[in-house]
Amino acid sequence: MIIIGGLAGTSTHEKLKEFLTHPSIRYVSNPARFEQMCKTEEVSLCVSFYDSQTSLEIFRRLRQAKPVLNFILLADVSSFSKKFQKEADELNVFILDVESFIDLLRENYHTAGEERVERPQVEKHGRLVLVVSDKGGVGKTTFAVNLARYLALRGKRTAILDLEFEREGGGDVARVFGYFTRIEASASAKKAFATVEKFNNFVYTKYDDFNYLEKFLTKIEDNLYFLSIAAHEEQLMDYKRRTEQDPENNEIVEAIYYMLYHFDVVVVDTSPQIHELYLYLMRQADKIYYVLEPTAHIVDSTIARFEAYGKRMISLKNFALVVNKSRSERISDLEFLSIQTGIPERDIYQIPFLPNLQNPFDILSNAQGKKAFENIYAGLFPEEGKKVQTPNKRGGFFSIFRRNRR
After folding, report:
1. d(Cα 69, Cα 244) in Å, to the nearest integer?
2. Measured in Å, how far apart are the chain's first and last C-alpha atoms?
3. The whole model's pTM is what?
């Protein structure tokens, strides 16, 4: 949410009027009330058009209370002394003229004069897919990105949602696609505004219009769209706290279901931590891919995590195991993993070890890698084809932890 403060009846107030009824924007004329709301409300951006000195004093006090809050002062920067500009820079206050700010509002928000259509209560169209793991560094995000890209190549309109609460400014999916959005102190006002507000504006809005939805998504290629929970640390903690309190009824769940009206598949990349929102989404998911690496403790750690899921009433019926960076193609290895974890062999997949991989997308250009995703696609859409059997070959990595478990 944005809070805008300034005196009513001024020329700036008149110019901003058309935006002040937006559900994600709050306007207040009293300076003390503005400061109090910025301090206590769930807000991502505070914008002031009070006189410059009053604005700076308010921002200075707010900076002490909320170190990561973003501030914009609407004014003509050329009218300020170098001393004032230095003070503003020290507080990370962005000075922006009102016309530029209005351009940003028009780019990111519907105005009061535009028609708003409430999202109809209809059944979801697409399939919800979660990608999870019990630790970082196992290739979870690389798998999620390649899965989304393969689905798009097969003609499925696909959205991949970066929902890592632990990464300020965007998780690993953002990095893979080159959209790392951490807010640095030296960022421009436009970058700060777009980064902080794009996800917020999306989850708080309910428009049944794909053309409008596209404003909040980044199109990577044909049929493939990307959205990140790009935010600073305070916002992420706020999302996390509120979704833990009510994982079923919150803006993020609303946003995901809204996406499912428009996409064939929504792939959600999660953090390794167990979170109430993830648990709720697991109960709603059509498929959950649990990514792991072939290490000596692979079975023990997987069983421990599955036991934790069981205590939270999470069924394993929609789970599939993805053994990433696999050096083995032995069917007996899959049998062993299936017996130990309770996941059927048909839902265990192996992504080959590719030592010369330079780009995460290169997996799909490799014949073995592409075959692995063909199998995964067949499992996700069984009505369209059958899983390709993997040949039985000698050798295998599972002998490592077979010995460890004796």
Report:
1. 22
2. 56
3. 0.64
